[in-house]
Amino acid sequence: MVAPDASDRFLSRNRMAGLTAILVFPLSEIAALTNFLPLVMPPGQVLAISLAAAIAMWQGRAAPGRAAPGRALPGRAVLGGAVWPACAWLAVSGGLILHLAVSRAGWAATLNQFAPMFAVLGAFMVLSRLLTRHGRAWRKALSCILCASCLFVGAIIAWSILDAAVIFLPLVYDPVLYRIDAMLGLGAAYRLGDLLNANQAFRHFILILYKYNLVFAIPALFSEVFYARKAAAELTLQLLISSFLVFPLFCLMPALDPLFFFGGQFPDHLPAAQSLPAHLVPTTVGVVRNTMPSLHAAWAILIWLALADSPLWHRLLGLIFLAATLIATLGFGEHYAVDWVAALPLVLLVRGICCASLPLASALRQSCVMTGILLLAFWVVAVRGAPVTLEFTWAIRALALLSVALPFAIENTLAVAERRPGRLGRDAVAARAE
Known about the structure:
By secondary structure, the chain is mainly alpha-helical. It has helices at 6-33, 43-62, 74-79, 83-132, 136-165, 174-183, 192-198, 200-211, 213-227, 235-252, 258-262, 295-306, 312-331, 337-354, 363-384, 393-417, 423-433; strands spanning 171-172, 281-282.
């Protein structure tokens, strides 16, 4: 019997990202057309990406495999019979979206909105036919293109959800986060703003990397695909899932950021931490509450981890992108320093959820998930419990230390385990036996 190669596992993982898109994107569009969420993309564009994901899933399901007769490829094993239910869901949700769009804007406007859908689908099908003839490497590239488009739409949807939640979050924890920064000795990080203001060329360079971080994630995605020595490339799925995992955390710990909260006082005239209240404060600033933990930090760290097996110059570029994100988030006043500390447990949680090299039953993968959840839960208690929790300086410092040390230690163990030859097969057999 010839075992399926890493291409099969990779495509299987990307099909999971496609399935996520198929389930979530039409739901978000229905919510937008019924005025529960702001409409940020025309219905046809969202459906086009969802249908492209369905086509890619179908092609992967029907693609000639390498398994022995009677043995399912990993894509089928992971997805089971998900392709047909996904197509049925798209047919039902697409019909409902069409009905809502016509009721809202009329037939003429709706047809104009849906025109891009046919163009995108046609281009995707032509590209698919051209690339899949050239072997598995090109199938990987096509899958990357699809997942990148899913990632962009997912980020837009996540942003629209955050924007809609602003009216329900009139109170913010900015003073609490600022005091925690001072408690941890991280207040000096805001002086990175002086570095950016001193050199305009450097400022613009950092700003471009920060504002277009999703664009710079695409080369990292391709690099992971062609160089990773683990069972499957997971970066796109990690970025997509993390975009939605942070939403409840943003709602539980709503905050603006130093720039919006302090205004003109940032970064040169920031007040003393002890002069601020140690509790929620009201605000009339209508910006999204997307501060704690830092999603930008989590993405930059995930991108850097994904390049572990890539050539040295790829890893250096990933490190530059990570450093640029750190400088931008703190120097532009987009995040508090503690947001970076809380991003590490989020990264660990996402790594545990998306790891394809180890079965769900493995102790290491479960430790990633549980440690990430527990550390994030402790941060929620620490922030929401202020001012009482701020009286225990030692506990806050211990939580910050654990939030850095535990993810680093567990991630190192996970990185070795998921690249160990034969580990996937042995663990899978052990999990089935249990």
